[in-house]
Amino acid sequence: MGNKKNDFSQGSVVGNIINLAVPMTMAQLINVLYNIVDRIYIGRIPGAGSMPLTGVGLCLPIISMVIAFANLFGMGGAPLCSIERGRGNVKEAEKIMGNSFAMMLLFGIGLTALGLILKKPMLYVFGASDNTYPYASQYVTIYLLGSVFVMTGLGMNSFINSQGFGRIGMMTVLLGAVANIILDPIFIFGLGMGVRGAALATVISQGISAVWILRFLTGKKTILKLKREAMVLERRRVASIMGLGLSGFTMSITNSLVQIVCNATLRDFGGDLYVGAMTVINSIREVVQLPVMGVTNSAQPVMGYNYGAGEYRRVKEAIRFTSVVAIVYTSIMWAGLYFLPDLFIRIFSNENDLLAIARPAMRIYYFGFFMMSLQMAGQAVFVALGKAKKAVFFSVFRKVIIVFPLTLILPHLWGLGTDGVFLAEPVSNFLGGAACYVTMLLTVWPELTEGEK
Q1: Which of 22, 71, 126, 178: disulfide with 248, CB 3.0–4.6 Å?
Q2: What pTM value is reported for the model?
Q3: 313 pLDDT exceeds 60?
């Protein structure tokens, strides 16, 4: 029964991807709202200026770290489940899901303890000043206490989507997002909790989503059930999960690393206001890249299932569709971000000083935005087909080998200063995106062509 439901080797490849992509993109958009809505409200706390928003921006690397570990086990286990389900091996797929869940719990508890112990030195290394540290500390303390909920909600939703239940995945996240939107103004303004209220609303909302997800995965409607006996850790299985999840983990952890370097460099070259501008730019990016993430993530279970079933022609069709959609969308968004930057910036802040800095910075940061889609499309193929080493390499290549050193070097060259920090991103998109996609075409495509014969 389970093997016949959501059989991605049947029907239209494009249709299968779209059926997953629409609800999955909505779910991701809703999920981003957890943090985005916080920043929208925080940017409008009366009389505080941009300092609370900047303080929360300093917490983004820590949030990225939590997301990184959710990706390690969620994005690592979910494609393996798709491959095993495509082979008809439901029992092994359930064990993969159970092991992933157990690892999320263990690492969630560990991250909470470690983060609270190292909180103060971490935030100052991340770019905090005496003016912004109090706000950052208030937010991150509460957020870390709820990191188990965050990891479970984000990580386990991948297993709902990988089974083809895109609408269920969207609805589970919607439940928490609606709660967050309602609780944010109550806690921040109504109860006068400020930044603490934003963090508390987020944690409670993620907890609601996590409970809902676990109820579905242990219920009657799911194909793969989350069972206690499947949570017994097995070294080989955990290694496979972490090996494939290293791509998503590396992307998030390197994002965290880059955010740290950017914030610290901007603080030194420009001050707190430039850190606030980067917070706004990163927030905008989280939203505008969502459709690409939705399509590429939705294509992964379709590609993985068909790869496991030996349907290589359908895998190639999925790659073509994913690539075209990603490139067209990011090209359109690039134009919007360049010509209408104020429209996006004012979502988070109406402060004139911040607007004056963020406007030119956005035009630099998003230059050639379409090249990022090549990175994401190439990564999606490597992850979906279980080619973990290539996926990890190109995550590291773009962020660590290109962005990290450029962020440190460019501000010192030709008088670029803060512009050099924003320039590192488009350079990495061109070099990293081209390298990742071309490598995918030279390695994966011939393998699929040969398999068609």
Answers
A1: 71
A2: 0.71
A3: yes
